[in-house]
Write a structure and sequence with these properties.
The protein has about 325 residues and is an all-alpha fold. The protein is about 65% helix and about 0% strand.
Length: about 325
């Protein structure tokens, strides 16, 4: 964003500094997680677009502007891409023994990682009970009410954010493991969601239109209540060891019972809260309650003991070292 404003103001020296900072930090992201390689064409195209937008060429068409921006950055882009490619190959060789081994194919199911049904991801990222972006980042719901005004005010900046979001949203929907299982929430999209939620800030600006003020007050109040509820849900999950929910889901999925399978698709905080209530003796864990009429008392106690074993406290800082 700073680069955009510097190009517009014509500050040549600082523009060059921020240009290389953009490429440097993009490189760090790619080296940290190879999936960020999708950012490279977006970032490079965005730099070209910015240079084109603010170049004052009289009687020039768009093709001339693109040629100017491309020629201006060609050498820098070539050095950047060549250097990054060498670093990625070296990192792969150092970690996995081959420059072409990315590590993504270590799990058998992911050897052909772009073979999933995109409809599952496109729908699931928005509406899945366990991986919806709205469920784990409720600010987005309220940001939708101010998307239009925010985009109008910060067009250049927010177009970049939207481009990154839709690129990863669509690409990850083709991923065979789009859910990113054994994680809390949609981790493949997590990095962009805070920026995508920025329009929510407009809810807290003073309203010039008197008629819209009551609506904004209602939205602000609902937002606060939603965030409190979200904090409660996350607390329910994080009170226990990370793997508790996933181990429980895997354990009871073996029963192959439709009622149990339906329950196991519930949000993680509901499952964790039920686990805690079972351990405290407040209620029987729902899947175990479904199985109870068809199993012996001994088997019931065995399943109950498994649940209790999963309910290990996550407050490790309170544990005494052994």
């Amino acid at each position: 964003m700073r680069y955009t404003r510097l190009v517009k103001s014509g500050e040549t020296r600082m523009t060059k500094t921020h240009f290389w900072l953009i490429l440097f930090f993009t490189s760090l992201l790619v080296l940290e997680k190879l999936a960020f390689v999708l950012l490279i064409p977006i970032v490079l195209a965005w730099i070209l677009w910015i240079d084109m937008q603010f170049k004052n060429l009289y009687e020039s068409n768009n093709i001339s502007l693109w040629k100017y921006a491309f020629r201006k950055n060609l050498l820098s882009f070539t050095v950047f891409l060549a250097g990054l490619m060498m670093l990625v190959f070296w990192a792969n060789w150092h970690r996995f023994g081959s420059p072409f081994n990315t590590g993504y194919a270590q799990w058998e199911q992911e050897k052909h990682f772009l073979t999933g049904n995109p409809a599952d991801g496109l729908y699931g990222f928005l509406f899945d009970k366990q991986k919806s972006i709205f469920l784990y980042f409720p600010l987005l719901i309220f940001a939708l009410f101010r998307f239009r005004s925010f985009l109008k005010k910060y067009t250049v900046e927010f177009v970049f954010v939207l481009t990154v979001f839709f690129t990863y949203y669509v690409f990850n929907s083709f991923f065979i493991n789009w859910r990113g299982n054994w994680c809390y929430g949609p981790r493949y999209l997590l990095f962009i969601l805070p920026l995508l939620s920025l329009p929510v800030l407009n809810l807290f600006e003073s309203e010039k239109n008197i008629k819209s003020r009551p609506v904004s007050r209602i939205l602000r109040g609902t937002l606060i209540l939603t965030l409190l509820m979200s904090a409660f849900c996350q607390t329910c999950v994080n009170m226990m060891a990370f793997e508790a929910t996933f181990s429980t889901i895997d354990y009871y999925a073996k029963a192959k019972n439709e009622q149990i399978n339906s329950y196991l698709k519930s949000p993680f905080w509901i499952i964790n809260l039920d686990l805690l209530r079972h351990k405290m003796g407040q209620k029987v864990f729902p899947p175990l309650r479904i199985l109870k009429p068809n199993i012996s008392d001994k088997s019931f106690q065995k399943h109950s003991a498994f649940i209790n074993s999963q309910c290990e406290s996550n407050f490790f800082f309170l544990h005494k070292s052994q």
